[in-house]
Amino acid sequence: MMDIECSTELTEEPQMLPPPPGTFIDREELIQHVGEFAVSQGYVVTIKQSKRDKVVVLGCDRGGVYRNRRKPVDESAAERIRRRKTGSRLTNCPFEVVGKKDDGLWVLTIKNGTHNHEPMKDIAEHPSARRFSEKEVLLIKEMTEAGLKPRQILKRLRQSNPDLLSTPKHVYNVKAKLRQGNMSVRDYKSLKPQKSAVRNNYLSVTEPSWRQHNPPRVPNLIGGRFVDSQSLASIDVINPATQEVVSQVPLTTNEEFKAAVFAAKRAFPSWRNTPSTVRQRIMFKFQELIKRDIDKLAMNITNEHGKPLKDAYDDVLCGLEVVEHACGLANLQIGEFVSNVPNGVDSYSIREPLGVCAGICPFDFPAMFPLWMLSIAVTCGNTFILKPSEKDPGAAVMLSELAVEAGLPNGVLNIVHGTNEITNAICDDDDIKAISFVGPNTAGSYVYSRASAKGKRVQCNIGAKNHAVVMPDASMDTALNAVVTAGFGGAGQKRVSLSTVIFVGGLTSWEDKLVERAKALRVQPGTEPDTDLGPVISKQAKELVFRLIQSSVDSGAKLVVDGRNILVPGYEHGNFIGPTILSDVKVSMECYKEEICGPVLLCMKADSIEEAIDIVNRNKYGNGASIFTTSGVAARKFQTEVEVGQVGINVPIAAPFPSFTSLKPLFAGDLNFDGKAGIQFYTRVKTVTQQWKDVAAGTSSDI
């Protein structure tokens, strides 16, 4: 009986458990995990040993128990020594956990999970709670210079922070360090136990390191945290109008990429089980935040891409439409149900998310394409890794900040940066189940072949050569306004630009008016009011456009309007190209066969609508085509016989909703961005067949 009572007493003693082992994205996340678990158990951990990029050893801070310095009258010397040893915070606790970096991730192991002291009843009594925040240290400095005493300083600090546990002695210690010129924030880092139970004095409470650089470095988003890459290699983001460096994009390291994939994979089980209504609410909030910050987003796009502000607003708004579509996605994710297939057996299908998906974006729509990809993917229950263009990544990072603010859980959205190496890593990683890509022809074909060889689901929207067919009976104002707007808008860098115009019957009757409208376009920085045409994205792009123009002239094309020598006052070094018109273009010319990312309009002639349709159909990169006519018969013939995915009748092909569809190699894959096809791409069908029968009856059914 005695043994039973003793064992009962032992089991009732408070137990302090060690944190569960696991794998973490980085050192800080591991330390936070250990610290928060320690608080729940009644102890506080501290860093005992650390090699920042290799290992960190965490130990117990002894519960914060200090010895009682008052000597009881009836206490012997031996008793005082015993109490001093057992009660002293200097007595080491055997608890110890180790975090080691292994293949880019941090692995936590428990070396000794036991303690030699009881748990603290109130963590706020721990000395770490008596540390001052950075703001309080600065106030102490100011009040000391004003002649206030420690008690007066403490009284004023407690007016703004009633829970402050510091004593006048702590204020005096801070003042002593200030007199020595020691203003390092980490010496005074506030470590309130209710927020973080780790005395991680190495952390800074100032702005993130990536914001402290000049120019700022574009961060990765990994596991819900914006972190500066450890990479030494970076790419400058250049304002194409001024040539000023806006920011720097560090090339995400292989370890950081693996951490992003790990974060997405770890977040997937929880996110897929999150009710669709909760995911919808996050999208509603995301939509609201985009509208709130649309001015900042548009200005960032103009500074990095160069497009006029009005085009930058349209960029965001077109992406916002997909976010709004995602808000109602639950109604489109329904499956099918068939009752009583054979006797007493029902069969139904459900749509489930794929897992970790990825998106690779081009430079021409810095906000729209990321929103097209991630909004549908995450609302369907997937986690996502986004690689924005290294030429203008700012809008994607700003949107990810808004997504986190909207409530997107850690790890659901991650952002990495880079060029070929990171693209290869996305294609090769076995944990990534699907890839969306928009970009040039060569890159898109490469991504499709490499990723599909790994068994991934892939959709590649690659370079476009869009045509407009102008019939002799077309309204001149309607046709020319549309051709000039869609041909030169966005400096001709949009994937939906009308780069080629086929005039049925010849250009002669249209040429003067077309030239007049082209020369009336205002070429200036996108930040200037009433800008029609901004700069192209880079000097390399400008040189390529110049080369294609010269190649066309050398091949026999007529240079109707030459925009190569344009000069914008005050922006002489900008990547500006004026509206350029080439006529007498043949299908054999390089300018027709290649995608021109610049404000260059190619004019061709055809003797009939049949010849015009044949020209469009023979171009292998025909994303879309428009016809301008007043004849319903001609419009219907064009609509029926032209082999493109998007058809415009008296309008350009630019669509207000994602509609990358094509009958040509422009699209690699079988499911597109738009509507239900987007949902089908980011989900898979699971068929369930079920039977419920009365066990007592002992009957069975043949299926």
Short description:
37% of the residues lie in helices and 19% in strands.
Biggest sheet: strands side by side, in what order? Answer: 19-20-21-18-17-22-23
Radius of gyration: 33 Å
- What's the rounded overall pLDDT mean? 82
**What coarse outline follows from CA principal-axis ratios?**
globular
Decide which structural class fits the backbone: alpha/beta
Q: What's the end-to-end separation, in Å?
A: 61 Å
Number of strands: 25
Range of strand content: 15-25%
Count helical runs. Answer: 22
Low-confidence stretches: 1-13, 63-69, 85-90, 184-206, 656-663
Protein name: methylmalonate-semialdehyde dehydrogenase (CoA acylating)
GO molecular function: methylmalonate-semialdehyde dehydrogenase (acylating, NAD) activity
InterPro entries: Ald_DH/histidinol_DH (IPR016161), Ald_DH_C (IPR016163), Ald_DH_N (IPR016162), Aldehyde_DH_dom (IPR015590), MeMal-semiAld_DH (IPR010061)
Enzyme class: oxidoreductase
Which properties best describe this structure?
25 strands, 6-stranded mixed sheet, 37% helix, 703 residues, 22 helices, methylmalonate-semialdehyde dehydrogenase (acylating, NAD) activity, methylmalonate-semialdehyde dehydrogenase (CoA acylating), disordered N terminus, 19% strand, Ald_DH/histidinol_DH, EC 1.2.1.27, alpha/beta, NAD, 7-stranded mixed sheet
Would you kindly provide a written description of the structure presented here, covering whatever features stand out?
Its EC number is 1.2.1.27. Keywords: NAD, Oxidoreductase. One of its GO terms (biological process) is L-valine catabolic process. The protein is of the alpha/beta class and 703 residues long. 43% of the residues are buried. Helix 21 links the parallel strand 22 (624-628) and strand 23. The longest helix has 19 residues, at 254-272. The protein has a seven-stranded mixed beta sheet with strand order 19-20-21-18-17-22-23, with helices on both faces. The chain has a six-stranded mixed beta sheet with strand order 14-13-12-15-16-24, with helices on both faces.
